[in-house]
Amino acid sequence: MSNQLYTEETPADVKNAKGLHLITQNTPNGQAVQIFLEELKDAYGTEWTTTLIDISTNVQKSDWFLRLDPNGRIPVIIDNTQSPPFTVHETSAELFYLLKFADKEDKFGFKDDLERNQALQWTFFWHGSGAPYQGQVNHFSRAAPEKIPYAITRFKNETLRVYGVLEIHLSGKYTGETKEYLAGKGKGKYSVADVKTWPWVKNWEKSGFTKEEVSVFPHLLKWIDRIAERPAVQRGIGEAYVKK
Predict the structure, then answer these.
(1) In what order do the strands lie in the sheet with 48-52?
(2) Average pLDDT value for the chain
(3) 144 and 162 both lie in a single domain
(4) What is the pLDDT of residue 197?
(5) Domain-embedded: residue 19
(6) 81 and 173 within one domain
(7) Are residues 82 and 165 in the same domain?
(8) For 192-219, how does the pLDDT look when each residue is reduced to its tens digit (9 = 90+)?
(9) GST C-terminal domain: from which residue to which, for each copy (predicted)?
(10) What pTM did the predictor assign?
């Protein structure tokens, strides 16, 4: 155990963990890593332990947590197989860390450099252009102490624009070939790019968008349903990750 990494306040299940350990909450960002770990379990038998926290209590701003992630956000991975234990924050970085160290056959990645770059492009696209906008929709629509119509309208319109980018890509509007997944040649291959993006986009209704608003994205809606059929995806958003 690293004296600098853990303190007396660090929960026992965190500082005594062996192997991979995940600190998470069942939010879209948390779900992305939860889903990928469940996929790796099905593919390789990957094992890990989990600590569930409640970010509404601001526990993620505690000193013990900030030692693991100075940004104070979930999820966080601690890899105790490294010496000293190695921490990973930022959802997308965690996905690619697991891809490197736990997906030796690139079942959820790509061996081809150009396809690998496609996965990076679409992961970064959602990380930088999708999640921030939809997150602000959620904040200003549900959490803000006062409703600010301009902010709600702006971030809703930007989120719909981003959905439209995904629709263009999946529909093959400019390539002539529809895609089933975001990255990869031809119709694509289920990868970390989909894992990163899906937990957010599937929440379009919870974010306040109407069926009429999203009906103009038929290929995106089919993509949502396609990924939802995967058993690991359902486990990754399921009851095991709900703090009792």
Answers:
(1) 48-52, 20-24, 76-79, 86-89
(2) 96
(3) yes
(4) 98
(5) yes
(6) no
(7) no
(8) 999 999 999 999 999 999 999 999 999 9
(9) 112-244
(10) 0.96
Q: Count of domains in the chain?
A: 2
| One-letter identity of residue 168 | I
Instruction: Assess contact for 199 and 207: CB atoms under 8 A.
Output: no
Asked whether residue 1 is domain-assigned, the answer is: no
Looking up tokens 């026992």, which residue turns up?
Answer: 12
Neighbours of 225 (CB within 10 A): 9
Structure tokens that stand for 219 in this block: 């290929």
On whether residue 2 sits in a domain, the answer given is no
Q: State whether 201 and 221 are in the same domain.
A: yes
- What value, to the nearest 5°, has the Cα angle with vertex 6 and ends 3 and 8? 100
User: Is the pLDDT assigned to residue 2 strictly greater than 80?
Assistant: no
Same domain, 93 and 155: no
Domain around 44: 12-107+234-241
Residue 46: closest CA among 107, 5, 112: 107
Cα distances from 84 to residues 6, 79, 87, 168, 189, in angstroms, run 12, 9, 10, 45, 35
**Is 7 inside any structural domain?**
no
Token couple for 26: 């069942």
What's the average model confidence in pLDDT over 62-88? 97
67 & 125 share domain: no
